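Practice problem: predict the structure.
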Amino acid sequence: MNVFPKRGGSAIVGVAESDLGVVAPGTTPLDLMGQAIQEALADCGLSLADVDGVFCAASQLRMPTLSLCEYLGIRPRYYDSSYIGGASFQSLAAHAALALEAGLCDVAVIAYGSTQRSARGKFTPQRDMNDYDGLYNPRLPATGYALAAARHMHLYGTTRNDLADIALAARAWAQKNPRAFDRRPLTRDDVLNAPMISSPLGAKDCCLVTDGGAAIVMVRADRARDLRRKPTYLLGAGEAQEHHSITQMPELTETGAARSGAQAYAMAGLTPKDIDVVQVYDAFTITTLLFLEDLGFCPKGEGGRFVQDGAIAPGGVLPVNTSGGGLSYCHPGMFGLFTMVEAVRQLRGECDDRQVAHAETAIAHGNGGVLAGQATLILGASSTL
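Answer:
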């Protein structure tokens, strides 16, 4: 039997990033998590003494919750470090909601930190490899996403120009975000003529490599109304897993986001037409396209045409990855938590030049592995309850 959180039963009340981009020498992932947690608690007017639920995932720590709690000097009543790559944080938010509703904790923090950029050459995340795939020496994850992109082009006529529209939209949003790592001008020729990484994906089709961390604070809905910021309520959640190795993916152009999204919409009582702001995991341009299709914003195979002519850029028909996403804002190894931070800020109306007018609902979608684990959250302002 599937167990889901109660619609609107819990809320995100604090969000923050740590230092982003390239952090100071000697900074650790725990430093970044701790920094983000303190900022997120200050955001909602709580303190470490209030925290009794800790949820985190990390690629540079073997036992992240134990290490983080020791670092913070706290002994929570409940903790969880379930790991499904970049989708971990949407999944952990659903787990946190269930723990809050069950009374297992009262104030939950979800955190992530990585020094991926600073540690290049000194740290390599362990990659599980299908023994049969390993014979071909794939350059993962790029090779896997390139397979999906090539298949989509073959089946549906998608072009590199279509993928370039996604990169250009992300950069246009990033230019409105003072915390974005890459705000430099970007042209279509820059995208199309960038060095090829794994055909058909060039360097500008690939996410940034940065340091950084983030954290959110969750409480039950009855407490959320009394804290410093406008609450952002968890309306829907869903998870799905179709494969692990890309060669075992049933269909390279159809991800588990179709199932996780359906679960989240059903719980929220909403449809794609009801969503004002979309934040999806964009490790590569092709992921944005696939998730827009699988989350129901356009039919399967129409993603390339859907994103043309600035449709997902500022001023377009659908605001997508308004922070600049993993392509231009930041990507410290795993990006899932950052989609949630941006979604909350949009629903609070705190995004200044990139603010989406009258935003009341948002999707924050996480992707883990090579299009493997998928997790979807639908968040809403108080008007949606």
